[in-house]
Amino acid sequence: MNQPPLPIQLLERLIAKMRYPVLWIGIAVATPLLLLFFLTGVIYPDSDAVLFERPLESTGLFLLMSTLPAYVLMCFTGALRSGASIHASLDPLLGNEVNHVAIRSGRMGFWPVGVMLGVYYALNSNIVWSVLSFDANDPAFMLSVCLVFGQVLMWSAIGFVLFFSIHEGIVLHRLGKLVKIDLYNLDSLNGFGRSALTGFLFVAGALALTTLQSLDREFQVDEYINGLYVGIPAAILLVLLPIWSIHRRIRAEKVRHIKSVNSEISKASQSFEDEPLLRLNALLVRRDQIRELRSWPMDLSIFSRFVFYVFIPPLAWTGAALMEVFLDSYLGV
């Protein structure tokens, strides 16, 4: 029997044993990091540590590197818990010949690849090595070490969660080709939409957290570019992978049903007598009803949440920029 990798097994045990596993994961990750950065003094360094023009630049960056890993792992824990119910809802829609467990567990063992890609991205795209100092006698030594450590840890967590999130999207993409579709019970397919919504919230929240970098009152677009390079493709993948195959099948099923109804309409009598007239009208109504059915595996509540989540990062960034303007005006800078 296929077993999930060790990190997943540990999280599943945590979910089974604890009442608020998502909250405890966040506390367990963020608290040690905040203590480390506070006790080493890097969260508000002395002016002698010249990596930043202002201490608050360091504060915002290290707050981000403490809270973002906690946030993405909290999202992953929540997604793991909701994923179990999503797959349970899909089981009745799959034939006995479909090995649901094997499809879901396949290739999970490659998760270290996601972590390594995260580390590579951190080391090559998010650290300005030329300004760091690893001389133990330099005031900037501890700041440099913690900066590298924080970036590597943050992007490792992001790579870890992205791997499993994309893997889940691929699994649902495959299952979307296998589940039975009942056009008159499309709510049974809402699990695909909920999974896409969870993935999108993960990305939107992570991008919103990047505004912590603007605590120094300097809202600079360059600070968000590396996050957008990862966030935008990830959002597209995490939204489309779970829903695209089932969307195409729903649309194809609608076309097939409409063709069938049209065929019956062409054969129906157009007499104004009661029975033929009632039959023809019923067929016309049925065709209109099928046309009006949604083609996506999500109801109005899921769709409205998508619309709301789209505005989370822009509103957060706008708020950060407005706060900078307000503080500059208030302080007379």
Describe the fold and architecture.
By secondary structure, the protein is mainly alpha-helical. It is 72% helix and 0% strand. The protein contains eleven helices and no strands. It has helices at residues 6-17, 21-39, 55-90, 100-105, 111-125, 141-175, 190-209, 222-267, 274-292, 300-310, 312-331. Helix 3 packs parallel to helix 6 (141-175), helix 3 (55-90) packs antiparallel against helix 7 and helix 8 packs antiparallel against helix 9 (274-292). The longest helix is centred in the last third of the chain and has 46 residues, at 222-267. The radius of gyration is 26 Å and the shape is elongated. It starts with 5 loop residues before the first helix and ends with a helix.
Low-confidence stretches: none
Question: How big a fraction of the residues is strand?
Answer: under 5%
Mean pLDDT across every amino acid position: 85
Quickly count the helices.
11
Number of strands: 0
Silhouette: elongated
Distance from first to last alpha carbon: 65 Å
Q: What is the C-alpha radius of gyration, as a whole number of Å?
A: 26 Å
Helix proportion of residues, in percent?
over 70%
Structural class: mainly alpha
Helix and strand arrangement:
Elements: H1 6-17, H2 21-39, H3 55-90, H4 100-105, H5 111-125, H6 141-175, H7 190-209, H8 222-267, H9 274-292, H10 300-310, H11 312-331
Helix pairs in contact: 2-3, 3-6, 3-7, 5-6, 6-7, 6-8, 7-8, 7-10, 7-11, 8-9
List keywords for this structure.
333 residues; elongated; mainly alpha
